[in-house]
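Subgroup meeting minutes
Present: P.N., E.W., G.H.
Scribe: E.W.

1. P.N. recapped why we're keeping a running log of single-chain structure predictions: easier to compare across weeks, and new members can see raw inputs and outputs side by side.
2. G.H. added today's entry (474 aa).
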Amino acid sequence: NGRDCRTSDSGKSQDLPSTSNFTLYRTAEKMSAPLSAVELADQLRTLKIGIMQGNKENVMNSTEKVCTEFQKLSLPRESEILDVGGGSGILSVLLQTQGFTNIDVMDEDVLTIQKLKVLRLYRNYINRGVTGLNSSGLRDETYDVIVTSCGISSHCISPTQITELLRILKPDGHLFFTMNYDSSDLSSNSSLFDVNLTSIEKEEKCQVMKKEPYTDSGSIPLGDFYLIRRLPGHLPEYLDNPVPKELEETLTKLLMYEPNPEEMKKFYDSCSENYEDIVLGKYTGHTKCADAFIKLNLDHHVEILDVAAGTGLLGAAIIEKGYVNIDAVDSSMRMLNQAKQQAIYKSYIKATVGKLNSVPVKDETYDVVLMSNGFAPGQICPSSIPELLRVLRPGGYLMWTMKDGYHTIQEFAMMDSFIDDLVRQGCAKLPVGPVVFPNYLLDHQGRFYMMRKNVTNHWATGSPRQSPKLKRKV
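Output recorded in log:
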């Protein structure tokens, strides 16, 4: 479930959210025990007095609205909850009085985090703001529920960053939050947010279950309450089609087969005369990759990304077989311009493939990602595979060819182990590969790999889709 194990007071393991580059505060070297019922009652009374004395009645109304709507759903008590923009911590106290104890807090203000830590109002303390996709540092699908009271505003979390909250929410998980009317820029923020939310709904990634005004004790409107359910997103039709066992044997034979000169000439005659002379007739990586892809017999309208597309060798081979929805990405604009002269691709993207989000493309955009000779020293490294999987839809295919023999180079030495780790983590399968074949470039051997992205949805606790229940370690 994407969590690390730490040690609690009892000496047993305690799950903490897996993160990168955020500060995780704990009350001491060991996790503190949850507050007792009496301590909760005392904290609730103290926090309410502090809020009212600070003339923040709207905060109290907003928090109570979130808790009331939360209670209506009758969610399982073991739900994993994240409170974003914890503030005073009263939202956590109210939820704990309902029996929910697996509550973490995330706030960008270190002083707020330190104050909440002293009060022992949460299980884990995350000092991080929500400023963009992956900005929280949390893994995908970490929480069953995300709550925030007055947290969506220009001075806290911008409404445009709702996608980051949805990313860390499990499918069928719920997001509860309020937006107050007292912000000077509310109208523009709210309008922008609703447009963004409508767009996400159209992509079938979320469902707005409720949007309604909430009021103070005198029925004066204070803001809007939202309840959003995370959806898994639209899945491609080929998702349930397994990769036949015989396909591995077919592809292996195909890749090991050395075409005769006439077949090579026929292909290269169909290509542009602008290709470098050193490549012509001496390089087979693109044809091997194209032939392997064709064997999948996918619909001709699938969305394809050609990575390290260059002048379009691989794209041209795919178009020749009737596939029309192909985009190209390459770090060289001059190479892309040569491909553009032949009108091979729909879109031409100049980018260097590297860490996550290095390619300016939305998650789950393509059905197939192909690459020929992209993996090479000084070009694209194996550590970029997660980025290639990010732009791939669940069930989609990632296929590539590369020169054999890079195992002596540091960046490539552990390539197969890295791929095995991704498979073990449930990110993807490796139906075929590595297959070593001859005459990749001149007399050098080549390698072929085919990965297939898994559906890695960890359904929210209590989801009707009946995910296997994981007993929490305490």
